[in-house]
Structures are given as C-alpha cells and as structure tokens.
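Record 1 of the preview.
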Amino acid sequence: QVQLVETGGGLVQAGGSLRLSCAASGRTFTMYGMGWFRQAPGKEREFVQAVTWRSGSTIYADSVKGRFTASRDNAKTTVYLQMNSLKPEDTAVYYCAANMWPPTDLTKTAGYNYWGQGTQVTVSS
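->
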C-alpha cells in the first residue's frame, strides 16, 4: 500500500510560478514510477510528467516541456514539480500517482495503482 499527499497548489497570475510536492508513504521501496497528471472541469485527466523512481529518468508532456521541472528527495520519498511561466490553460487539479508494476506506460492513467487527492492550481489571465 502507498499513500500520496499533494501540496503546493494555489492562485497565481499568468507568468507566475508554483511548486507542487507529493509525499509518498507506506510500501514505497517497491515503487517503479511516480507521475503528475492534471484534470480541468469537463476534461479528461492528462499526463504532465513522470519519473522512474530508481533511475530518476523523467519524461514531460509537450505542453509543459521547458516550463515545468521535476525533482526528487529520495530520503523523504517526495517528488516536486516546479511550474514556471504558468498559463491560464494550466488551470486544473493536479494529481500525484505511483505505480508498482514494471514495465508500465507512465504517460497513461491506467499505468498507475495509487493516486493522491489532488491540489488545485488556478492561473488568472
């Protein structure tokens, strides 16, 4: 079992920055990967970023590449998403996810076993 808690969401102006955190607890030593997804009202949940936990290899959605940067704190079992140059279209609930079963497509929601409750990010124009 893995528990995930996201923090760091808020309201910012376009062009501003936010830093999201996702703290994992439980049986985290067997995790294969962790990722960030986002979902706006009336839209499907979409991939943002993912990392292979052991190696640190990361992938980003084209829509955020060059603006968002992920990092990890292995000792705290926490991942971070630094979001810069935010746009109104980035407005969504951001969810942290983890999976235990490699090989897995970490860009798809179906590839994850555990999800956090989400944190709201709102970007005003």
